[in-house]
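Homework help board

Subject: predicted structure for assignment chain

Our instructor gave us this sequence and asked us to write out the predicted structure in token form, then describe one feature. I got the tokens but I'm not sure how to describe them. Can anyone check?
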Amino acid sequence: MSKICQITGKKAMIGNNVSHSKHRTKRSFDVNLFRKKFYYVEQDCWISLKISAAGLRYINKVGLDAALTNAVAKGYCDWKSIRVIA
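My token output:
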């Protein structure tokens, strides 16, 4: 499973560790991802999403249905990748 937010599309970035002597080595900046369950009122079911903290704030701002339709329209996820919890 890749470390990509299903709502915002954020993924890991590559950067440098810089020591005191300015020696640079490659490192990865990971995304703050976690699995979260939401109640999807429009479909009357529970769904599980892998989202970042910024994605959670976005859902709180515009609502779950608007966030999901926006993410599908931008190509961050599709309706088949959203897990429905029975």
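Reply (TA_rk): Your tokens look well-formed. For the description, you could write something like this. The chain has two helices and five strands. That's the kind of observation they're looking for.
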